[in-house]
From TrEMBL:
Entries under SMART domains matching the protein: S_TKc (SM00220)
Keywords: ATP-binding, Kinase, Membrane, Nucleotide-binding, Serine/threonine-protein kinase, Transferase, Transmembrane, Transmembrane helix
Domain of life: Bacteria
Protein known as: non-specific serine/threonine protein kinase
Sequence ranges assigned to domain Protein kinase in this UniProt record: 15-280
Pfam families associated with the record: Pkinase
EC number of the protein: 2.7.11.1
Ranges annotated as biased composition (Low complexity): 320-339, 389-402
Binding site for ATP: 44
GO molecular function list: ATP binding; protein serine/threonine kinase activity
Membrane-spanning ranges: 421-442
InterPro entries listed in its UniProt record: Kinase-like_dom_sf, Prot_kinase_dom, Protein_kinase_ATP_BS, Ser/Thr_kinase_AS
Disordered: region residues: 320-355, 373-413
Length: 564
């Protein structure tokens, strides 16, 4: 099946069609010349044959999401969104004339310095999207454009849902398979911020290797084969002498099969890349991230990290929609197009927590923090209008007789020179004392008769679980180094003990943690599996972990232990 021909470019008032730039599963991109102001722009147009309301809502949501974040220096700028004369939705965006990285990584050898710079900058863009509650879910080289100022810019926040060509492995099933993490192929598919971390790391790998991470040069690369390798095969080495071993370790951690073993955020991955830059004596690339005050660091640092100076955290100014003077104002819903963004994208704050499940088209992260744009004004900041007392100009002057009869009328309550609050306090105390005395007197005169307490029939009986569950055995600890972070991780695994039944859960924790490390000793519940990845206490090379079983009645059974 040959690729389809591009659709007919729409007629847009104020724009002159120039050429076709490209096409995708459900949209084409054209180059137009805008008349006012005069500039070249890229216009993404939904295909005319697509009448699915879900696709149209997704297309509108992409415009709203990108517009809300397009002030970020590493996200493509959205100029406007409109509907063409033929009814097709359009997104007018910044035109990036340079070849994108989807073209370049196949045709040229990209320097390690450039790959690191791109990875750090896009990590800032991805972290900003995550803090806004948005998952990209389609990070790949082709979605990293290059601006006129030679800066990488992330684009395409709308995921394709149709293939452009039979057997096209890069667009099958509405995702880009070569850069997708294993959890995207589960049934049902799962995704969170660590899924985007995997895809970004796979993109950096592709820039360095000149091929996708699990692409074979001597075998077929069908979609099924790629999925099998992504799920089971270790990450192949880069095979570049100029790429240090530390960079390979960073990419291996970011692309771990288990999401819990990856970097917890795009920010952590970007900082790990910054450390590689510093190791190679390269200029450390700045990473722009919008501040999310709802996030708190795991542990406070005594001194700022060396990489902090290369991370620009910019604050977000939030105006409460219900604040005085905001009703009916443009943009009162948060950001331009926020209503469509909330409705189509399911941003936190627009739905209840129960409605924030990942679905194939949501594109919304079950983010570890709340959406910055949904937060109300900071506590302590008054939204009430200021009150200004001005002298009255409408009252007539007093006559000499009135002034003589009442030379200085004293306000009521000030005859004794006592402030009103003191008088009210004394009166209130007297009333309270009289009331308490009266109650005590009545109880002393008429004591209540003691009697049996009626039984409480509202308490349901609790079934007592007297099963004896053996302690978990074969406990193993595998240390996972996390380059570029202060806290490493460990994979804990064990064997299912005798007596373990449905409804039982495991409690896993580090044992005997002293002050300053108590958070590592908090038990973590694990259900349905006999392994987990958890943070390892730093500076504890011989720490011990314990695994216990808790039955549904709440009783904890004996625990098994193992040490590093």
């Amino acid at each position: 099946m040959s690729p389809r021909a591009p659709s007919r470019p729409p007629r847009l008032d104020g724009y002159e069609f120039r050429s076709v730039l490209g096409g995708g599963g459900f949209a084409d991109v054209f180059l137009y010349r805008q008349e006012r102001p005069q500039r070249e722009v890229a216009v993404k147009v939904l295909l005319s044959g697509i009448g699915d309301l879900g696709v149209r809502a997704q297309f509108e949501a992409e415009a709203n999401v990108m517009a809300a974040m397009s002030t970020h220096p590493s996200i493509v700028t959205i100029h406007q969104a409109e509907v063409a004369d033929d009814g097709r939705p359009c997104i007018v965006m910044e035109y990036c004339s340079r070849p994108n990285y989807g073209v370049r990584f196949r045709s040229e050898r990209i320097a390690v310095e450039e790959a690191l710079r791109v990875g750090v900058m896009i990590a800032g863009a991805v972290e900003t999207a995550h803090r806004a509650g948005v998952l990209h879910r389609d990070i790949k080289p082709a979605n990293i454009l290059v601006t006129e100022y030679n800066r990488p810019a992330l684009t395409d926040f709308g995921i394709s849902i149709a293939t452009t060509e039979a057997g096209d492995i890069e667009d099958s099933t509405g995702m880009s398979i070569p850069w997708s993490p294993p959890e995207c192929f589960a049934d049902p598919p799962r995704a969170d911020v660590r899924s985007d971390v995997f895809s970004l790391a796979a993109t950096v790998y592709s820039l360095l290797a000149g091929r996708t991470p699990f692409e074979a040069t001597d075998r077929r690369n069908t979609a099924a084969e790629l999925i099998r390798r992504i799920e089971t095969m270790p990450l192949p080495p880069l095979e570049r002498p100029d790429a240090p071993a530390s960079l390979s370790r960073v990419l291996a951690v970011a692309m771990a099969k288990d999401p819990a073993a990856r970097y917890d955020s795009a920010l952590a991955f970007g900082r790990a890349l910054q450390q590689v830059e510093a190791e190679l004596s390269l200029p450390v690339t700045a990473m722009d991230v919008l501040e999310d005050r709802s996030r708190q660091p795991v542990a406070a640092r005594a001194e700022p990290d060396d990489l902090d100076m290369h991370t620009r955290i910019r604050s977000i100014t939030t105006i409460a929609p219900g604040a005085p003077g905001m009703q009916g104002a443009p943009g009162a819903q948060g950001v331009p197009g926020a209503q469509g963004m909330h409705g189509a994208m399911g941003i936190p704050g627009a739905h209840s927590p129960a409605q924030r499940e990942i679905d194939p088209f949501a594109g919304i992260a079950p983010a570890p923090g709340e959406l910055a744009a949904s937060r109300a004004a900071a506590p302590g900041e008054s939204t009430a209008p200021r009150t200004m007392l001005r002298p009255s100009a409408s009252l007539p002057p007093r006559s000499p007789l009135e002034a003589e009869a009442d030379p200085d009328p004293e306000p009521e309550g000030r005859g004794l020179g006592l402030p009103p609050w003191l008088v009210l306090s004394v009166v209130g105390a007297l009333v309270l004392a009289v009331g308490v005395g009266a109650v005590l007197g009545v109880r002393a005169a008429f004591p209540e008769k003691e009697g049996p307490t009626p039984p409480d029939d509202t308490t349901e009986p609790v079934a007592f679980d007297d099963r004896d569950v053996a302690a978990p055995t074969d406990i193993r600890i595998e240390k996972i180094d996390m380059p570029g972070t202060e806290v490493d991780k460990a994979r804990i695994s064990w064997s299912r003990p005798q007596g373990f039944a449905q409804g039982d859960v495991y409690l896993v924790s580090w044992k005997d943690m002293e002050d300053g490390y108590r958070q590592f000793g908090e038990p973590q519940e694990v259900a349905g599996r006999e392994s987990m990845v958890m943070n390892a206490p730093p500076h504890h090379d011989h720490a011990c972990v314990q695994v216990a079983v808790r039955v549904p009645s709440g009783a904890a059974q004996s625990a098994g232990e193992a040490c590093m």
